[in-house]
Amino acid sequence: MSPSLALDILLALALLWSAWRTLATPDLTRAVVMFIVFGLLMALAWARLSAPDIALAEAAIGAGLTGALLLDALGAWKRQAGEDKP
Amino acid sequence: MNAAARLAVVLLALGLGGALVAAVLELPAPHPVLPEAVAAHMAVSGVEHPVTAVLLNFRGYDTLLEVAVLLLALLGMLAAGPGEGVAPAALPAGPVLQTLARLAVPLMILMAGYLLWAGAHRPGGAFQAGAVLAGAAVLLHLAGLLPAWASPGLLLRLGLAGGLLVFLAVAAALLGQGALLRYPADHAGTLILLIEASLTISLGLILAGLFLVLAARRARP
Question: Contact B98/B140 with Cβ under 8 angstroms?
């Protein structure tokens, strides 16, 4: 098996695994982190498919900005939940 | 959900997935004609990278509308909430994060400039450069160095709308050519660079705004 084929198979398996963990995990923080991991792996997959433009956009917007927005929303939601509780 | 129902769902999903794979495999092999058409017209496009040529020249109006949609999304967010009141103070952050932000943001601005310039002949361009700029703004906000945007001032509004305005101005100036956004071959490179430079700043501000406007809304009691 050539190294590039092995990398592609690993990448495909890791994509499926991270997508599954993102949807299946009950812990929201972990789900957001897995979503960012999925985005970075997806960027690698685009690069492997010779689409560097999409890889750049996916890494910057898909993983970076969307991940930051999700983390921020999660933090705000947790703060709000903490304020309502006392 | 009991075991029988779960098994039925799994079997249904597997059957659907298998049918999807079979259907895709049965599709006739595509005969792409667009790559050849793009390659044939690269000489008049003003840039050397085919993706940039398609985005900014051959299908320029698609990009124009995309920018308009992004700007509308931010305008909707600004219109939805109260615009008055003082901007909330930036969140306190640790000295490590602040130092990291101070070191990283100049590099990110440099990177955005490189991506913008590289878009003419290799992967890169306004969207990627704008996203890096937006990332820098979000990092500054998280490090407590940039306050949230409670109500954008005139300069910020100009920056937000500037990319679309420059794009529209170029499109309007070229209407005499008989087609929307058909650049004269001699000046195509300059016009594309002008549009991309203004788009980079506007897209960076718009994408950062999606984050910073929400932050201002939330900080208000």
Answer: no
Q: Is the dihedral of CA B52, B54, B58, B61 positive or negative?
A: negative
Q: Does the pLDDT value for residue B82 go beyond 70? A: no
Average pLDDT of every residue of chain B: 85
Chain A residues closer than 8 Å to B134 by CB: 65
**Which of A65, A74, A78, A84 to probe the B interface (max B CBs under 10 A)?**
A65
Whether A53 and B125 lie within 8 Å, measured CB to CB: yes
The label of the residue with tokens 């992967």 reads B123
Give the range of the structural domain holding residue A21, as residue numbers without chain letter.
3-84
Q: d(Cα B205, Cα B74) in Å, to the nearest integer?
A: 10
pLDDT in tens, B190-217: 888 899 999 999 999 999 998 888 777 7
Contact B214 A72 (CB under 8 A): yes
Contact residues on chain A for B125, CB-CB shorter than 8 A: 53
* Number of domains into which chain A is organized: 1
The verdict on a CB contact (< 8 Å) between B123 and A72 is no
CA distances from A8 to A2, A4, B123, B199 (A): 10, 6, 22, 35
Question: CB-CB: which of B125, B135, B210 is closest to A64?
Answer: B135
Residue B19 φ then ψ, to 5°:
-65, -40
ipTM of the complex: 0.73
